[in-house]
């Protein structure tokens, strides 16, 4: 009798057992779903990932460990940025009359005879933006020159200001620029500021951001997660640094907005960077790049962009504005660099903080050196990440036997993105020599065709080389036994570095 209560208790155990069975079924369904998603994602990776190595790596991971690989693939795996191309087409549609006026105006200054004309033809087919003559350019070395020039330009604004930066900090430099932007907005001038949501991930919470909004500055974040297929896409970043004042003058280069870019961070020290000031017909190409980014970020059109007939005769330099982004089926930035390397006859000098190229770039540099071109690559002696640093050594080891000279800068942190081809063509912009800039980032590069400007860039790079040490095969051979393994392991991450 005492044990008659046992059956109900056992029944409760059966209920608990059913609960465990239900949890087991849920787990089983989840596992099946992950493997199904893994199979679907693996097929998509094989079709869409732009390198064979990347496609194989993703496919194996997605099939072997889908519960780990599927979330990573959703964030990092896709190489096509859906929606931005449609936005760019929308900008062109909305500004069709503007573009017609622009082409009519710029056509007066198109480059028809130039040593760089074959290069221009190829790059024009990539971007649809022609090279234009009649521009004045000024080389800006390091932060003091750059921000003094930008601040003078901002203070002279009469109609509109466009400012775009990957990083904007609420520090002394940021607040200094912010005060000028606020003053101009209060004076009735149209001011638009665009920042990357990841590069400046806390900017919207800062007092500087609140001040700018309160004073009438139009502030927006470039958000790559818009749209159903982009929901998890954090990997596509807007890395452009653009300032435009009144449509007359533009600044493009490697400097973000923060005190460290003035060399004021004691942990970093001297920050070696380069910017370019542009005045002339080519400024409109910079404005249109900003307008497309603004359209994506805000879903509204930028009404201040307009052709400027007064921009006609400011100088003698030919300039091609080359914006690149992951919305194109072609790898625009990678093809741009490849074209410049292949076209080089006398020299190709490259300065980049992140030198993690793909196979085609490595082969092109090797062949250029083998045919007698003076090929030099300048990178930081102290990179800002151990994986990037090891990857740099891996590519250096490949390039040295072909005759490529690799220099490691010891005068601080090298952040400039500069290319010098032969004696007439120089490129300055935001694109690094890595897969992120080739395939994933929104970048902009200004290619200047002119022997005078090229000689200025040459002098600047020669001064930098005096602060470098040249890497030798003996140095690599003397590395410890574990070093080749570390280089190889780092290289596996090169598609996402």
Record the strand order, biggest sheet: 4-3-2-5-6-8-1-9-18-16-15-10-12-13-19
Structural class: alpha/beta
Total count of domains: 3
Rg, Cα atoms, Å: 26 Å
Largest pleated sheet: 15 strands, mixed
First and last CA, distance? 74 Å
List keywords for this structure.
497 residues, alpha/beta, Endonuclease, Chain A, 3 domains, 15-stranded mixed β-sheet, 17 helices, 19 strands, globular
Describe this structure in words.
With 497 residues, this protein is an alpha/beta fold. The protein has helices at 6-48, 52-64, 66-77, 84-94, 96-106, 117-127, 142-155, 172-186, 207-214, 283-298, 332-343, 359-370, 386-399, 435-440, 451-465, 473-477, 483-492, and strands at residues 132-141, 160-165, 190-196, 218-222, 242-245, 249-253, 271-272, 274-279, 317-324, 347-351, 355-356, 374-380, 405-409, 413-414, 418-421, 425-429, 433-434, 443-449, 468-470. The chain folds into three domains: 10-77, no CATH class; 84-121 and 131-317, Endonuclease Chain A (Endonuclease, Chain A), CATH 3.30.870.10; 332-496, Endonuclease, Chain A (2-Layer Sandwich), CATH 3.30.870.10. Strands 4-3-2-5-6-8-1-9-18-16-15-10-12-13-19 form a 15-stranded mixed beta sheet, sandwiched between helices. α1 (6-48) crosses α3. The chain is globular.
Brief sketch in words of this structure:
With 497 residues, this protein is an alpha/beta fold.
Which helices and strands appear, and what pairs or packs with what?
Layout: H1 6-48, H2 52-64, H3 66-77, H4 84-94, H5 96-106, H6 117-127, E1 132-141, H7 142-155, E2 160-165, H8 172-186, E3 190-196, H9 207-214, E4 218-222, E5 242-245, E6 249-253, E7 271-272, E8 274-279, H10 283-298, E9 317-324, H11 332-343, E10 347-351, E11 355-356, H12 359-370, E12 374-380, H13 386-399, E13 405-409, E14 413-414, E15 418-421, E16 425-429, E17 433-434, H14 435-440, E18 443-449, H15 451-465, E19 468-470, H16 473-477, H17 483-492
Parallel strand pairs: 2-3, 3-4, 7-14, 10-12, 11-17, 12-13
Antiparallel strand pairs: 1-8, 1-9, 2-5, 5-6, 6-8, 9-18, 10-15, 13-19, 15-16, 16-18
């Amino acid at each position: 009798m005492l044990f008659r209560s046992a059956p109900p208790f056992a029944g409760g155990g059966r209920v608990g057992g059913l609960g465990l069975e239900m949890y087991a079924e849920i787990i089983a369904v989840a596992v099946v779903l992950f493997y199904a998603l893994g199979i679907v994602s693996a097929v998509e990776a094989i079709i869409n990932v732009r390198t064979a190595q990347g496609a194989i790596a993703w496919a194996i991971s997605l099939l072997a460990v889908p519960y780990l690989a599927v979330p990573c693939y959703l964030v990092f795996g896709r190489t096509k940025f859906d929606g931005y191309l449609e936005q760019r087409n929308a900008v062109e549609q909305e500004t069709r009359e503007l573009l017609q006026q622009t082409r009519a105006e710029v056509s007066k200054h198109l480059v028809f005879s130039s040593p760089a004309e074959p290069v221009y033809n190829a790059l024009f087919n990539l971007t649809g933006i022609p090279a234009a003559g009649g521009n004045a350019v000024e080389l800006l070395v390091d932060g003091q020159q750059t921000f003094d020039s930008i601040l003078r330009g901002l203070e002279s604004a009469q109609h509109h200001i466009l400012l775009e930066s990957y990083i904007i900090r609420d520090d002394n430099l940021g607040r200094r620029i912010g005060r000028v932007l606020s003053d101009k907005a209060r004076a009735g001038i149209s001011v638009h500021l665009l920042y990357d949501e990841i590069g400046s991930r806390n900017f919207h919470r800062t007092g500087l951001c609140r001040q700018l909004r309160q004073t009438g500055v139009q502030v927006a974040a470039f958000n790559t997660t818009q749209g159903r297929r982009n929901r998890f896409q954090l990997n596509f970043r807007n890395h452009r640094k653009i300032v435009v004042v009144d449509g007359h003058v533009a600044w493009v280069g490697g400097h973000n907005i923060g005190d460290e870019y003035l060399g004021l961070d004691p942990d970093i020290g001297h920050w070696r960077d380069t910017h370019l000031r542009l005045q002339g017909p080519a400024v409109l190409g910079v404005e249109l790049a900003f307008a497309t980014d603004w359209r994506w970020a805000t879903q509204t059109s930028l009404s201040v962009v307009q052709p400027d007939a007064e921009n006609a005769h400011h100088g003698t330099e030919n300039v091609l504005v080359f914006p690149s982004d992951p919305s194109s089926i072609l790898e625009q930035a990678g093809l741009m660099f490849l074209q410049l390397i292949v076209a080089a006859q006398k020299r190709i000098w490259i300065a980049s903080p992140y030198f993690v190229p793909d196979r085609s770039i490595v082969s092109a540099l090797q062949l250029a050196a083998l045919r007698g071109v003076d090929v030099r690559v300048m990178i930081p002696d102290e990179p800002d990440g151990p994986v990037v640093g090891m990857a740099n050594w891996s590519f250096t080891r490949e390039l040295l036997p072909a005759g490529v000279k690799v220099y490691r800068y010891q005068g601080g942190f090298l952040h400039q993105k500069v290319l010098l081809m032969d004696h007439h063509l120089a490129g300055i912009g935001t694109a690094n020599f890595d897969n992120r800039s080739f395939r994933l980032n929104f970048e902009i590069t200004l290619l200047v065709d002119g022997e005078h400007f090229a000689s200025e860039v040459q002098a600047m790079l020669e001064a930098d080389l005096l602060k470098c040490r040249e890497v030798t095969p003996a140095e690599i051979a003397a590395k410890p036994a574990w070093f080749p393994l570390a280089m190889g392991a780092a290289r596996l991450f090169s598609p996402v570095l």
